Structures
1.
Amino acid sequence: MGAEQKNVVMNKSYAFALRIIDLYKYLTAEKKEFVLSKQILRSGTAIGALVKESEHAQSKPDFINKINIALKEANETDYWLSLLKDSNYIDDNISASIQPNCVELIRLLASIVKTSRTNLKNV
């Protein structure tokens, strides 16, 4: 993965983590929701942490593994966002504001995994 692509994913995952933290604060303070909010806080902030970790992967397979786990965390976060919306903890406006960012991260991470696996096979 090129430095520019790495920065895009890192920047987007970091900004997303900050939004998830804000969502967590809102859910706990305003909605008094403490279980689902903790789940989304964990998975939503793990994405960027794993991307950051991948910068110092020990090998190409280790890099792919870390990015793939970040992808799984992004998918899990998307699930929690849907669940929070469908259970009326967050409204359509909040969902429409944050869920597209999650879907974008899923697409970016899936593309990185696919490209990295292809490049690994062609070595």
2.
Amino acid sequence: MKRVERFVRFAAGKEVLYGKLGGEGIQALEGDIFGDYRETGRQYELKDVRLLAPCQPSKAVCVGLNYRRHAAELTMAVPEEPVIFIKPSTSVIAPGDEIVYWPMVRQLDYEAELVVVIGREAHNVAEGDAEQYIFGYTVGNDVTARDLQRKDGQWTRAKGFDTFLPFGPHIARGIDVTDLRVQSFLNGELRQNGRTSDLIFPVPYLVSFISKVMTLLPGDLIMTGTPEGVGPMQVGDTIEIKVEQIGSLINKIVAPRS
């Protein structure tokens, strides 16, 4: 069995650092977690730091309609190949940050997702080699303006607002993601409860397929799709996304500040 490692990115005073979780503390790292890094010997307690998004992706490539039960829920045919779209890096927020319910939006939905974090440049990768390009996994919420998704017919606006990509709290390495529970809780009430074994296109296939469309860079994300049970959020709500063996991502919905 592989040893599970958990990587974070955090702010300690004016410093922004990468680190490894251990117990209730963080071992600070120096260097690039996607290349060469070393432990500095400095330890931080979680209560003394602010967790940031665990990496800085150049893009998040998302997969629509990738759970069989979600397709059935929508009475839609299972796709023959992945339907992909991109969230911009400007939509990224950290665990605990606020999701803004922008005035242009009339229906703001949560989508619980297992997220793949790419570890090395990936172009035209064979499915059998895909694992070599994966750094680890994290938890994500593909926040969506559902009304705009229906209105536009394509998804860039509906998926791309600032604050619409919360992910974290850390990146887990050394876990098997073929059958993990993926859940969402709105104000503590269970709303989604799927398993990654229900994925139509599994993770290695997605890495291979997407890398044949565009080059994936270290730190890029693949959002693997959401189980059935997506629904709306309101200002004041708290949304929690959980992925078994990885962690819990919590964000609150707020109105824009003037």
